[in-house]
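Work Package 3 (structural annotation) set out to generate three-dimensional models for the target panel prioritized at the project kickoff. During this period the team completed the workflow that converts sequence records into discrete structure tokens, so that structures can be stored uniformly alongside our sequence database. As a representative example, we reproduce one entry of 177 residues exactly as it appears in the project archive.
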Amino acid sequence: MHTAAVQPPRRRSAARRRNGKPFSWIPYLFVAGFVVVAVANAVLIYEASHSSTGLVTDRAYEAGLAYNRVIARAAAEDALGWTGSVDLDPTWNGDGAMRILATVTDAQGREIPGLAVTARLVRPVEPDEPIEVALTGIGGCRYAAPVTLPRRGQWQIAATARRGGDVFDFGKRVFVP
């Protein structure tokens, strides 16, 4: 007696098209990958064109030409020998108001009589209007003024001390919690 060999059932390894060839997802995956990249690029282009330009000055060329004056002013400040520090005191008042504290001394660490100290607070990443504050002497080499900031986050304090024709700039970047 002769027995026929039993063949195992055929496994289908992939879906088949009508013409009998196996169906492949690989070309569609390539196309889908390119679509994802194109959409991501479109989102980035939109965000870049509709966000802050990062422009610091409207007349950059003229500011670059006048840079020798900036260098001369820095040399004049160095010749004064003054030192300064500025900071915010967030614990000064419980209603959200803070106090700007500045200290300005001469080369020997003594008080400089007749100073007028001002401060300018700006958000480094937003084009908001700066907040200008005049500080008053509170004794010794220290100056202070109350200020209420509209938002939390990073602020740049640029302080200027003037006496006659002498000008001294100093500052600090602070984080308001």
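The mean pLDDT is 84.
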